[in-house]
Amino acid sequence: HFRAVYEHAYPADELMPLTCRGRVRGQEPSRGDVDDALGKFSLTLIDSLDTLVVLNKTKEFEDAVRKVLRDVNLDNDVVVSVFETNIRVLGGLLGGHSLAIMLKEKGEYMQWYNDELLQMAKQLGYKLLPAFNTTSGLPYPRINLKFGIRKPEARTGTETDTCTACAGTLILEFAALSRFTGATIFEEYARKALDFLWEKRQRSSNLVGVTINIHTGDWVRKDSGVGAGIDSYYEYLLKAYVLLGDDSFLERFNTHYDAIMRYISQPPLLLDVHIHKPMLNARTWMDALLAFFPGLQVLKGDIRPAIETHEMLYQVIKKHNFLPEAFTTDFRVHWAQHPLRPEFAESTYFLYKATGDPYYLEVGKTLIENLNKYARVPCGFAAMKDVRTGSHEDRMDSFFLAEMFKYLYLLFADKEDIIFDIEDYIFTTEAHLLPLWLSTTNQSISKKNTTSEYTELDDSNFDWTCPNTQILFPNDPLYAQSIREPLKNVVDKSCPRGIIRVEESFRSGAKPPLRARDFMATNPEHLEILKKMGVSLIHLKDGRVQLVQHAIQAASSIDAEDGLRFMQEMIELSSQQQKEQQLPPRAVQIVSHPFFGRVVLTAGPAQFGLDLSKHKETRGFVASSKPYNGCSELTNPEAVMGKIALIQRGQCMFAEKARNIQNAGAIGGIVIDDNEGSSSDTAPLFQMAGDGKDTDDIKIPMLFLFSKEGSIILDAIREYEEVEVLLSDKLSISFTSLVTKMSYRKLFLVHW
Ligand code: DMJ
């Protein structure tokens, strides 16, 4: 296949394997951004240089290097992607150089070599530097190889946004270039871009978005995952630590990793979330690029989730022969293309290294068989246009030879098959090899002392130790299998088998084991049932809860169907309630000394009990109920008798609290939110719903206060003991001062 590239495509950037010719930019219909990798610099040749050495094709490597030195021009009037040029071309030249000097030192091949590839790399490095001329230090996404950025001939430089991976995947190549040559500027620029991204991380979640404005540093796309647009930013933080030995990179990686595992990882899935609301999923599908992540987790030493995600991906592959560019959380094809991406093979290789489990060799065998069966064409391997139909695209990206071949070969290679020690090198994101000895060479870039900034990190041994692949699980060869076993049918289990049967079972009138109207978020038994049905509960900051169902997380297919019925009921219940009357906000006014009515707190109404809009107001002194949550018979009825009882939100339904205080003789009730810091200034007010049963027995008025407003009353009690309030229909009050802003936003319904 290397030969096919030379014969049919060279000196073009890529081989077109169906028509057996080279892809020359400008001569073929434009494919948009994909073409930005093509700089008329014999991309595939450069990208596959070090693969030749790995495959022990030393003679061919020597010829290929000569070709590069003789033919490749880096000064073309072409606009290229800075990211792609860095990882494929700069990385390719540096990987080639790394192995060329290794071979030269061995004394047989490359004896004539005099750092010529490195000189080319340096020339290319200088060509990329103008891209960094922004106030943020983040590079422009594209550059003209001949004219740079600013000049009119450049035809680029007006972009405002770049992807996080585009700006954060430079440090390995740029630092290697600096350390090989002594020209520190490259490493400095790459570090500056990384520092800026780190500063811009969303501080409450420690996640980064997909795209960022290179001038203002604002996040343009605030969704966050580990796949497209972000992937190699995380990869390079960890690998920069390995290559450069700089602790700050590991500290950053660990901080992000912690956030990824908290919010994005839902084993075996990896689901995008919003950086500001990380409990909210941003989409219901995953992209193929995230398949690299298990490999990175192996490097981090977190093997279990790596095995789980890899197993899930493998089952998707078994179902569709290849990993579709995007697939849904129930493993249907979302985007059917597959450009022969290497990420899954990469993770398979690293998992095999970590576990020694022959299962991963079987996985590799399946990958090779599928490639030969479905993608092999007379002039090479063709990308899949649609994995469902097996149709081809006239495309073979350079990463297929740079990465896929390398990883698959390495998976099956014995130590003796490789003419050098692969453990002495680190793989870049394009699988180019950089020698680890660079960590102690030309270390002139000052390391930032960041320890004080990171004191919150758990710097346990685990976080600071790289796994040693020689000694992982020597006594437990079944370790990986035991993790895979429960996931064996994860894809089949979630297959559309459901659709007809579920509809049928709905028609049959089957009921879920827990009825939506009975559900209480604080009841541990209910939560257990939810979990079994694959329904997860997300507590939103404003106190509401969100329910999400993932059929694959259910204990069985029957439970998954129950979960669907439960969700269906819940949707019906809330839409029914939405249709019910929208009550306006109410008010709690403190009328006793020294407030005298000047403090008015915005309160949420209840759909049960005395309607304040019809019955004017209720006035009384306040008293806290015991238990404070009001979920059982009060133990202090004498204290609340004839008073307005204060009750804390939570543990049971609002209606139950109302009944308990009413039975104790209270004339009204104020429920105070248990979410610390909540306020009607920031959270949407809601109305307290009943419990789905008849609530006519509740005669007293009930109002709801968020915690900030509630604590005004609690503080007043602490200071003045006797505090009298007026519960009223807010609109009827003429007040002189408002403590909290009036809120006439649409009210939500909440039950507990
Ligand atoms: C490769 O060019 C690199 O691995 C990059 O980081 C993203 N993925 C492509 C191949 O899929």
UniProtKB/TrEMBL annotation:
A single cellular component GO annotation: endoplasmic reticulum quality control compartment
Signal peptide: none
Stored CDD domains: PA_EDEM3_like
Residues at which Ca(2+) binds: 429
EC number of the protein: 3.2.1.-
Cofactor(s), names only, from the UniProt record: Ca(2+)
Class of enzymatic activity (EC top level): hydrolase
Residue ranges constituting the PA domain according to the UniProt record: 625-711
Pathway note: Protein modification; protein glycosylation
Catalytic activities: N(4)-(alpha-D-Man-(1->2)-alpha-D-Man-(1->2)-alpha-D-Man-(1->3)-[alpha-D-Man-(1->2)-alpha-D-Man-(1->3)-[alpha-D-Man-(1->2)-alpha-D-Man-(1->6)]-alpha-D-Man-(1->6)]-beta-D-Man-(1->4)-beta-D-GlcNAc-(1->4)-beta-D-GlcNAc)-L-asparaginyl-[protein] (N-glucan mannose isomer 9A1,2,3B1,2,3) + 4 H2O = N(4)-(alpha-D-Man-(1->3)-[alpha-D-Man-(1->3)-[alpha-D-Man-(1->6)]-alpha-D-Man-(1->6)]-beta-D-Man-(1->4)-beta-D-GlcNAc-(1->4)-beta-D-GlcNAc)-L-asparaginyl-[protein] (N-glucan mannose isomer 5A1,2) + 4 beta-D-mannose; N(4)-(alpha-D-Man-(1->2)-alpha-D-Man-(1->2)-alpha-D-Man-(1->3)-[alpha-D-Man-(1->3)-[alpha-D-Man-(1->2)-alpha-D-Man-(1->6)]-alpha-D-Man-(1->6)]-beta-D-Man-(1->4)-beta-D-GlcNAc-(1->4)-beta-D-GlcNAc)-L-asparaginyl-[protein] (N-glucan mannose isomer 8A1,2,3B1,3) + 3 H2O = N(4)-(alpha-D-Man-(1->3)-[alpha-D-Man-(1->3)-[alpha-D-Man-(1->6)]-alpha-D-Man-(1->6)]-beta-D-Man-(1->4)-beta-D-GlcNAc-(1->4)-beta-D-GlcNAc)-L-asparaginyl-[protein] (N-glucan mannose isomer 5A1,2) + 3 beta-D-mannose
InterPro entries: 6hp_glycosidase-like_sf (IPR012341), EDEM1/2/3 (IPR044674), EDEM3_PA (IPR037322), Glyco_hydro_47 (IPR001382), PA_dom_sf (IPR046450), PA_domain (IPR003137), Seven-hairpin_glycosidases (IPR036026)
Keyword Phosphoprotein appears in the UniProt entry: no
Function of the protein: Involved in endoplasmic reticulum-associated degradation (ERAD). Accelerates the glycoprotein ERAD by proteasomes, by catalyzing mannose trimming from Man8GlcNAc2 to Man7GlcNAc2 in the N-glycans. May also participate in mannose trimming from all glycoproteins and not just misfolded ones targeted to ERAD. May have alpha 1,2-mannosidase activity.
Protein name (database record): alpha-1,2-Mannosidase
UniProt organism field: Panthera leo
